[in-house]
Amino acid sequence: MSEEPCCKVSRIVNKYDLSPGRQETDIDSYLRSRWLGSTEYPETPLRDLVAWFNQSILRTVYAEAGRKTLEPQIETEYNALTGNDDDDRQLVLDDLQANGIDGSQLRTDFISTATLHRHLTTCLEVKKPPANTDSNWEEKKLDYTFQIVEENVQEILQSWENSGVIPNATETEIATRLYLECPICSAQVDIKTARQRGYICKHLSEPDSDEQ
Ligand SMILES: [Zn+2]
Ligand SMILES: [Zn+2]
After folding, report:
1. pTM of the prediction?
2. Is residue 161 within 8 Å of residue 168, measured between CB atoms?
């Protein structure tokens, strides 16, 4: 690993000696295959890859510190470390401290969706086929939309950080959500949840009932 790291992603891979946990491949090939989808892996959205990457950091550090590396625990603590609940985050930070783990450093080392996107497209020159050539184009377009939002917000945060408006603004994770609202009862549902369950609200679940 004497090569100069291309960006934060490689720097963190080197720092924690991260690997996909399967003997056949290095982490860049693994990320590329999962992002594009391959015979071995279903196509995986960037945000899931980011969560996987960052949780790999936790797994590595926990193992070294003799802390339990149960999957559900790692996921819960990762969500607390990256979430908006100050109390939850402090609880985990204190608990990590008790194991001699510097949780603030981990948070700084977590990568963002924008960072991984840059690593894949710029450092690795991975080209994703245009979004609307297959049957799944809507979800890809949605992910792309989130990416653009996150990249723009990242720029804004950088500016606020530079000018001291919000200290350490770029160290946050940006969670983009898009809600659809029922015009009758104002209930809101995450667009992805609506897609998964196949309706927006019970008021809109039978499309033709009003017209008949
Ligand atoms: Zn890179
Ligand atoms: Zn409703």
Report:
1. 0.62
2. yes
